[in-house]
Design brief:
3 copies of one chain form a homotrimer. The first copy, chain A, has 5 helices and 12 strands. The first copy, chain A, has helices spanning about 30-50, 145-160, 180-185, 205-225, 310-339, and strands spanning about 10-20, 60-65, 70, 80-90, 95-105, 110-125, 185-190, 230-235, 235-240, 245-260, 265-275, 280-295. Chain A has about 350 residues and is an alpha+beta fold. Chain A has a 6-stranded antiparallel beta sheet. Chain A has 2 domains: about 1-160, Hotdog Thioesterase (Thiol Ester Dehydrase, Chain A), CATH 3.10.129.10; about 165-339, Hotdog Thioesterase (Thiol Ester Dehydrase, Chain A). Chains in contact: A-B, A-C, B-C. Chains B and C meet through strand 7 and helix 4 of B and strand 7 and helix 4 of C.
């Protein structure tokens, strides 16, 4: 092997890993959360590397936003997940990373694109996590590419600012909820942040949080359907506040909407500092996950209708339906454009 | 613990997690140790949270004692384990947490109570692990509840103080032990404590130790029976000394007694500091685990009689038999009381 | 990002990962075992992929031998480890993979070569682990490269066949061994093989075994020196027998030799099937690890002389000394050749 082969261009990174039993559900489907975590690790490496290429304090890139991500085809245990991440735009204080994931079956040689994602990072000083550093500019292959990047930047900035931290509390379900109601499938996970979950400046990797969110959404979906379920799509996620070491993370999921063949689950991440109790609880992140139900041959199955009760659940169902119709239209429009 | 206790109250916590391949044995039964570890994590969170609600140094709750725990029914891979933990009593320097665990089959919706447990925690200062902090008092729903708690506290305190650290060494088995002898199934695990095993003030979580203890007891039972074995019961465990980061933990198990349908295994945890060698080895914990053997339909199987040799083994068998008969009587008495 | 970017040439693979707390010792040095495990995973992927490119039963590549590996410079927590693996020779039934590892400090941009390794794999049928499949030939850039590969193949084959499975038992140390004796630092780890440790056809990844071996050698070295120790070199390792799921793995380490600035530790892996007891214990692997002791600025420290007692320990010390002198000569000769 040539000595000179470099670990890759400075703005790009290839990460790959064999999918193991703990990455998958019982039937061997890789969790969407495992893939999101790999993507985020690659994005964190590539943007931290880039942001430290100029003088000044060292910094670590913190995940600020993930654009909507669709899972195009399932990945299985024993396959190799290849994640390619590349910096595609830089503003003064943020970095856009685009990633795509290919699943390779090393027995048959088959490869398939499983998803594409776009992530926004912000460089935080190693000395003071709250201090945001400037980002060195990248060079673009053409002025058009820069202009397109600037538009994506403006769009996400506007969306980010309009997205408020949630106040809508998740209430405990009634004691003996009826099947297919919201209360019946509502679930939570509680995780004590450990050293392996954290970056060099002691806040939780965004990918760790997304993996927990996908896990709870999967439990909600499985409870509703009683079948093999997989992540189909994750809506844009904004990371408003960092989660520090020594926190207890409570991840709550409740179903908001069902179509014939999909379920929408709202996931809310509440953080409680374990020791500095006076700082109080806060909602760090929230997002909508869409799951589908599969039969043994990985073909989509019909989903039981969600039974909604009361005004709040009805409102959330209507809002979920609106998101569903909006996405459907968008997909159709895209398909037409491509033809 | 009240079924209706909400997950939001400061003294309560609900934790759940999907059981994965690494949580179970080869036939898919969840290890008792996995469940003990989940219970202990919930207890640590709820009591650390409670003990930090007053002024003064921050602290982390360290496990001091677990009362006898029975495993009422097996849990399987793919099920969701729900742990509810609640603070039920506080003395000046200790916290009692009661927990119960429900297994939910998310495919069929079936739920079953798998076990109840009671744990005692002591708050240790973050600045100095050896300094015990005062515990803020909880309020009780009735004076009777407080009085019952006080009695449980006095009982465990007396038992704790009478339980000595062991000195009874585990000797190496003979070179070619005969089948069904003590030496034949005697086993150990040796583990180097890593950062993921530790609390914020760098000692090992009690749950990590209990999981290793259950694992070695399971190896001993499997070697004796050559069948699918599961944890039926764990006797009260006292944690006399903390295990610090950078220690090598040796967990040894030997069978002490068999009845027709159960095996009793003594587990001894020996700790050797890796760097501060002058401190020497010490026995940190010991306990008796009871296992049963199951056929493919999860029905109990007869257990081969343990062949004892020499005075020590005979004495331990007699003592095991006495514990067995005592427990049997107690169970019968309880059943009569309930009728 | 271009859709067409492929996950790499079929005979090459790049793997990278951020080094986390659990990958390092207390002072932040990455364990040699972590690096060996990453290398082996990359080698397993690239050779499994290659061996499945022709018709016939699917197969998984099993590690048969690792050539001597030197650790040229330490790697630290927070750095990114880049492993590049490439198939460099194929015989009828084996694959040679060469790998090199670069550590990248993403804060400073500094990169350094940490080690090179050569591994030999054998393709085992998925249907029958004991059946070895034929390997499709690779094409070489020049006839010289093929000829050099053939020579490496013949050399390792001869060495492999002459290396016998060990029969030299590790005996228990005396009860209160004196400091700096063999018995004082002798250590073991005992691990129950879990699903995450195994390949698709249910035997343990060679990298998992090497990681345990490095871990125990590190414990031995730390006990001898009481300082920060790191892996400097691992002698060639031959994997004579596969370790199957459901086995208990006992990894024993004892110091055999010390020079002024290095320690040699012999590591022996003994396997005991948990259920198929009739098959009995066997020694699966053994190897010599060389460790050095570092001060706080990562400069080598003198090593206390090993006190040997009795004929066997004296013999092993002499043999270790011979290996040490042989390696020293070889290094000097190589340095001269390069000038």
């Amino acid at each position: 092997m040539s000595e000179s082969s470099s670990p890759g261009a400075p703005c790009c990174l290839q990460v790959c890993r064999l999918m193991r039993p703990e990455d998958t559900n019982i039937v061997g489907n890789v969790h969407g959360g495992t893939i999101l975590k790999m993507i985020e690790e690659a994005g964190c490496i590539v943007s931290t590397r880039h942001c430290n290429t100029q003088d000044g304090d060292h910094c670590v890139a913190a995940l600020a936003r993930v654009e909507k991500t669709e899972f195009l085809s399932p990945m299985f245990i024993g396959e190799v997940a290849h994640v390619s991440a590349e910096i595609t735009y830089t503003s003064q204080r943020s970095v856009e990373v685009q990633a795509h994931v290919v699943a390779e079956n090393i027995l048959t040689g088959a490869k398939k694109l499983t998803n594409k994602a776009a992530l926004w990072y912000v460089p935080c000083s190693l000395k003071n996590v709250e201090e945001i550093k400037d980002v060195p500019p990248i060079t673009y292959a053409s002025p058009e590419l820069e202009e397109e990047g600037r538009k994506r930047y403006e769009t996400q900035k506007a969306l980010r600012q309009s997205s408020n931290e949630r106040s809508d509390e998740v209430v405990a379900p009634p004691p003996n909820p009826e099947k297919h109601t919201v209360g019946f499938s509502q679930s939570s996970l509680i995780h004590l942040v450990g050293p392996s979950d954290c970056t060099m400046n002691d806040f939780v990797h965004g990918g760790v949080t997304m993996k927990l969110m996908d896990e709870v959404a999967g439990i909600v979906a499985a409870r509703h359907c009683n079948t093999n379920i997989v992540t189909a799509c994750v809506d844009a996620i904004n990371f408003h506040r960092k989660i520090k070491k020594g926190s207890v993370v409570k991840v709550q999921g409740r179903m908001t909407f069902t179509s014939n063949r999909s379920m929408e689950i709202e996931v809310i991440v509440e953080v409680e500092p374990l020791v500095e109790v006076d700082k109080g609880k806060y909602c760090a992140v929230s997002a909508f996950f869409t799951f589908i139900s599969l039969d043994k041959k990985n073909r989509p199955l019909p989903v039981p209708l969600l039974k909604v009760e009361g005004e709040d659940e009805e409102r959330r169902f209507r809002e979920g339906n609106a998101r569903y119709l909006h996405n459907k239209e968008k997909r159709l429009a895209e398909r037409e454009r491509q033809q």
